[in-house]
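In the laboratory, one determines a bound structure by crystallizing the protein with its ligand and collecting diffraction data. In a computational setting the workflow is compressed into a single prediction: the sequence and the ligand go in, and a structural description comes out. We illustrate the idea with magnesium ion.
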Amino acid sequence: MSSLTDAVRVGIVVVAAGSGTRLARDEPKAFVELNGATILEHALRGVFASATPAQVVVVAPASHLGQARAIAEHAAGAASGYVDVVAGGETRQESVSRGLAVLADGVEVVLVHDAARALTPSALIDRVVAAVDASGAGVIPAMPVSDTVKRVEVDRVVETVDRSELVQVQTPQGFPRADLVTSYASAADDHTDDAALVQAAGFAVSVVPGEPQAFKITTPWDLRRAQQLLDRGAQARTGIGIDAHRYDDAVPLWLGGVFFPDEPGLAGHSDGDAVIHAICDALLSAAGLGDIGGRFGSADPRYAGAASSVFLRETLRLVDGAGLRVMNIAVQVVANRPRLSTRRSEIETHLGELVQAPVSVAATTADGLGFSGRGEGLVAIATALLAD
Ligand code: CTP
Ligand code: MG
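The predicted complex, in structure-token form:
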């Protein structure tokens, strides 16, 4: 242990010694890869990003001490003098107690944290430390229960439980060191969290708001959720959409939401506005929300003859609901007619106002080739860039 640790008053015990039975992978759960780094490394990045200087004790499987040490030192960077790695035990409680055994003398407040809560924001660590300091007692992060909760006997529903009295709890759980050490020394039963053990010893515990990202990776589904959250956080998303329509002399031409008098229109469901349809598909594609056919089926009578701006507004609502915003959209029209050059800025302004982001429109002909070149119809190709 480094003498540096004598100077800090907070200790964080990160338990990572479980096998991860429910995740069902070959390696112990903390060593499973999540978007290019192990679950343990992700958890430690959050811990070391905290504003609280702390001694960090990683409790790892005896078989993985070397790997745990390398991961911990890498995640700690300049703070590596503050890291200790020890072997865990058969149960989580045993693993925590082995971590407590190596706390430095100066530590007064101890947080116990599951490595399996890999995406825990560092702000939650600081919140728990501040609340332990303010209350002088145990503090745990809690989330409201949003589903209705029932008590059951086998498959028979006995009653509905009042969920307003219930919370789901997370880690890190923080305690005055003396409370936690006394509680562990006297623990008679195996408890599923540290707060239960501390309460069994007669000490008070209160809650602070938890964080959705502090969920525990337990099952393969949880791991996928963590992967998706990381993917989304790290990346902008592009999408592509293409729409083609045949000319039809019997209908008016709407393109990019703008009316063109004295031009053949475009056949198709709704008003045939291929530019807007391609934009909708590009937006849905970027958001991973399918496509315009799947969202606004041609069988749906609500959309027969509808102005395409209706689709665009609804698509923008879906994109917004997915937590994404539009950065920009680019459209290319491939057609002999209409001539777009004189109306281009009008279309760009109109669509830009609808989308609330820059929309650029360009046009070309197909050099006489294919249906567009022969003047049978028009193609619009759109790309969209979205970001979190
Ligand atoms: N843990 C530990 N030592 C144990 C058991 C669990 O350090 N003997 C740790 C895990 O590594 C994890 C945290 O406690 O970070 C929460 O436990 P859990 O999610 O149940 O992990 P596992 O026990 O590994 O998973 P499972 O119960 O599916 O086997
Ligand atoms: Mg377990």
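The pocket of cytidine-5'-triphosphate (ligand 1) is lined by residues 15-22, 29-30, 59, 88-92, 95, 114-116, 216, 218 (CB under 6 Å). Keep in mind that any predicted model is a hypothesis to be tested, not a measurement.
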